[in-house]
Amino acid sequence: MLNSTFSKQQIATAIAVLFHAVGLAGILVFKSSWIIQSTAFNLLLSAALLFWAQDDKNLFFWLFAVATMLTGIAVEIIGVNTGLLFGNYSYGDVLGVKWKQVPLIIGVNWFIVIFCSGIAITSLLQNITRPIDDTAAAPSPVIKAVSVVTDGATLAVIFDWLIEPVAIKLGFWKWEMNEVPLYNYVCWFLVSLLLMILFRISPFQKENKFAIHLLLIQVMFFLLLRTFLP
Length: 230
What we know:
Blueprint: H1 8-28, H2 33-37, H3 39-53, H4 59-82, E1 89-91, E2 98-99, E3 102-103, H5 105-128, H6 141-169, E4 173-175, H7 182-201, H8 209-228
Antiparallel strand pairs: 1-4, 2-3
Helix pairs in contact: 1-3, 1-8, 3-5, 3-8, 4-5, 4-7, 5-6, 5-8, 6-7, 6-8
């Protein structure tokens, strides 16, 4: 039984901060190739912590998680093998086991990005659209739904933009001509939009403080790497 002083969200956040801090130091200070090679483990740990911190995990939550992971792998397979999505790119060996030239862990990454973005935007909109008093009109459910979907997809694209230079330097993937095409972000937005619609309509609890914390931790992690990684 957990100590009443600490919640699951606090424990999960502490673990995530620790592992990302170790990763940051290992990459920037010690230039450790082992740390870089453990990226897949860090993604699995982050997903496991998200699952643990999520309350009331019903069938729809698990269906959403699996559907997001499978969709992420599927679009990446199409992208890598045809160039029809995202552009001309290929994965390195850093992210582990591949199937059809795509690391299977990339599906977990898609889940983390979409889930954390959706939770963050949902929480933000709940706070900023809360009526000031009982006489104030609440926003239309349709407007709230559209905001969650479009803003969540936009946040996911911004996150992808943030990590691109870092991922290339660390050997996660590479682009033809070493240039990230605008088409990549267009496809990221469209795929994220579809997954955000699934997120919105899936009837599971949309409150998970750790998801917001993890998103902020990863943003800071990649922002520091983007700034200081030679």
